[in-house]
Design a protein that fits this description.
This protein is an alpha+beta fold. The protein has helices spanning about 40-50, 70-90, 100-105; strands at about 10-15, 60-65.
């Protein structure tokens, strides 16, 4: 028996801390280091989602970071794996994507 409802999972994933804007008001400006998520961390996230998938009704990912699209390869890699997990486990997927290229790649177009 679980204390909390495990049918919903929401992840905030920082694919990179890199940013190309350099806003003058940015609180990260003085400590900003260009780094991206390692493959080991990506695989750990995928394994976690696979372990949770069988009992999920909803799954949400928010891409976060300096400028997440500077790590588009990581976003694409993880998104494709998430879609594959849900096709296998849940037989349902709802995606809200603002990136047309990524949307087409996820849906095989």
């Amino acid at each position: 028996m679980f204390r909390y409802n495990r049918s919903h999972l929401s992840l905030v994933i920082a694919a990179t801390s890199n940013c190309n804007f350099r806003c003058v008001y940015c609180y990260e400006g003085s400590v900003l280091r260009a780094s991206t998520m390692s493959e080991a961390i990506q695989e750990a996230i995928v394994k976690f989602v696979e372990s949770e998938a069988p009992h999920l009704e909803t799954f949400t990912v928010t891409w976060y970071g300096g400028e997440p699209l500077l790590a588009l390869d990581i976003i694409e890699n993880l998104s494709i794996k998430f879609v594959d997990i849900y096709k296998k486990e849940c037989h349902c997927l709802r995606c809200n994507n603002c990136n047309k290229r990524l949307f087409a790649k996820l849906h095989g177009n």
